[in-house]
Specification:
Blueprint lengths: L1 E3 L4 H12 L4 E5 L2 H11 L4 E5 L5 H15 L4 E4 L15 H29 L2 E6 L12 H21 L4 E8 L6 H9 L12 H6 L9 H11 L11 E4 L7
Parallel strand pairs: 1-2, 1-4, 2-3, 4-5, 5-6, 6-7
Amino acid sequence: MIITGAGAGIGAAAAKAFVDAGDRVYLADLSLDRLKATAAHLGSPLASVHQVDVTDADAVDALVELVKTETGSVDVLVSNAGVFDAAAGIEATTHALWEKVIAINLTGTFNVVKAVTGPMVEQRAGRIISIGSIAAQRSMPDGLAYCTSKAGIEGLIRRTAYDLGPYGITANVVAPGVVRTDIRVTSTEILGDVVPDTNVRIGDSVMGSLIPARRGGEPSEIAAAVLFLASPGAAYVNGDVLHVDGGWIAA
């Protein structure tokens, strides 16, 4: 199985969940240093490290071909690679910021989903799980490009589910709410000076009024939902968006 954005946060937590379940995991990320840190934390021969830029379709195709060659199949894709735009609104969103966020979050998702489609159709089985966001349904406190990219992922996955369902393949979205990750730090590293300094943060008022759980989530809680969608028990779940957001979607 393949996990993109496996160098930190939700991707790293998903990697641990699958390795703990005894699965062989191909860890992909733009940052080799973060990948090595994840692999060291896992400490398992089941995990291998692969530096891949999801915006590079050829590199993504090469990784999928490697997995197919080494394991004989491509069973699960967890498309998690993504960046955050510091909650930039329409005025603060430059063309450069828009293009980078859409390229990584949305086009990157298309690239990895497209790459695994052929092998999964051939084997007539597979699970595609993309990490979306509450931002696809709620406009704050996320930015214009980020919200758009996450809404686009939902459309991409729904159509993919329709197309690939007859081949025994499922495609679903896990949509987290507030989760304790370092996405702001990693996004700044990747986006550089195109990301504005908006200083927007999730405050106590949001936790108290919009999130019934009254807290942020842990990456392991998102990973648990991903693990479920990859399990035999989720075979009849397809084209869905599973919100793991402490109840924010109900507010």
